[in-house]
């Protein structure tokens, strides 16, 4: 992701539905004191993948393997395209399949089983039940964000919960993303299902009555419509990320004018896995191990605007202060997401008159 687009800004443009263009690149081999690369490991990933070149160069220095990347669109496209070619992969290892899409490629036989020894230091806490093929690398939380200045200026209490957004005093103030075309929109929908249970449909009816705005992607919602971003739009409530406020800290270190509502969060975890049929399984495993190393994990917040899974990795100062990890985000089993997601979206479309 770039620094403020997961925050166009660096919030992952996993937040928006990317085009299906495919791109490739090769990380430079390590600096002059490093041995020349003796081979290549191909990483298949999404369009928001971003690690510093010097970090990938360190991997080359340690292993003699250069990293070549192949991008397959956003996280949903990545999962879908990998699922079409099980056993005949476009690379050696994949990164960026998240828990909302994970069951699809796992069921298709895309991955070989591999549990990294480094997973014991935190990644195992995010393992998906019955899916030893996938290793967690990072996580983020999709949450409602608010423009705190608006509520102070209007002398209006800040909303706290999902249900608050449907109250009359917040009529016309909220913008969300279409779950058909934007991953944060899908996560927000899943969060309402997880939190409200059978009442999620009534909730969306109430949101529609309360004049909720729906955009096709995260960028439009956050960077154009949200009043708390540089776009200074008309809506003081937006679906974004728990990490978004850290990107709004002033250049002088001033507190951001936004905050995430931690009772409205749904957790997304990104995974890596060895692709079945790879010609370099050893290199694939080494790259997964490396992605869990403290050195690589420490770069993840600033590079991709998500949280590291390895224990003991410090967050940047602004994150620790303004983007704390939500203590109790909503979650759903990956199998349920795979089985019911399309049905939820169809019902959502009907409820919203689309």
TrEMBL record:
Gene3D superfamilies: Periplasmic binding protein-like II. One of its GO terms (cellular component) is outer membrane-bounded periplasmic space. InterPro entries: ThiB-like (IPR005948). GO terms for biological process: thiamine transport. Residues 1-23 form the signal peptide. GO terms for molecular function: thiamine binding; thiamine pyrophosphate binding. Keywords: Signal. This is Thiamine ABC transporter substrate-binding protein. It comes from Tsukamurella asaccharolytica.
């Amino acid at each position: 992701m770039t620094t403020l687009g997961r925050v166009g800004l660096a919030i992952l443009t996993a937040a928006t539905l990317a085009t299906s263009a495919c791109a490739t690149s090769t990380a430079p081999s390590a600096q002059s004191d490093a041995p020349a690369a003796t081979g290549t490991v191909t990483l298949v990933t999404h369009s928001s993948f971003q690690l510093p070149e010097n970090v990938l160069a360190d991997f080359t220095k340690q292993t003699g393997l250069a990293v070549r990347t192949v991008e397959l669109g956003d996280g949903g496209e990545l999962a879908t395209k990998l699922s079409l070619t099980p056993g005949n992969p476009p690379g050696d290892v994949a990164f960026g399949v998240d828990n909302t899409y994970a069951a699809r490629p796992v069921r298709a036989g895309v991955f070989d089983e591999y549990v990294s020894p480094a997973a014991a230091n935190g990644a195992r806490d995010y393992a998906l039940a019955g899916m030893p093929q996938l290793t967690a690398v990072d996580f983020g939380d999709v949450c409602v964000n608010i423009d705190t200045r608006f509520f102070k200026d209007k002398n209006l209490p800040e909303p706290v919960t999902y249900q608050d957004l449907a109250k009359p005093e917040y009529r016309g103030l909220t913008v969300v993303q279409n779950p058909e075309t934007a991953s944060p929109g899908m996560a927000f929908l899943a969060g309402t299902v997880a939190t409200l249970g059978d009442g999620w449909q009534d909730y969306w009816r109430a949101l529609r009555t309360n004049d909720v705005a729906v955009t096709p992607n995260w960028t439009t919602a956050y960077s154009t419509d949200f009043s708390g971003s540089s776009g200074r739009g008309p809506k003081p409530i937006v679906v974004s990320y728990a990490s978004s406020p850290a990107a709004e800290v002033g250049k002088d270190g001033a507190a951001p004018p936004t905050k995430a509502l931690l009772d409205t969060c749904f957790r997304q975890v990104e995974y890596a896995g060895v692709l079945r049929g790879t010609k370099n399984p050893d290199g694939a495993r080494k790259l997964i191990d490396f992605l869990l190393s403290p050195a690589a994990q420490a770069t993840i917040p600033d590079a991709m605007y998500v949280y590291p899974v390895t224990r003991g990795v410090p967050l940047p100062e602004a994150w620790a202060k303004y983007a704390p990890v939500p203590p109790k985000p909503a979650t759903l089993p990956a199998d349920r997401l795979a089985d019911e997601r399309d049905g939820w979206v169809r019902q959502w479309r009907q409820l919203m008159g689309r």
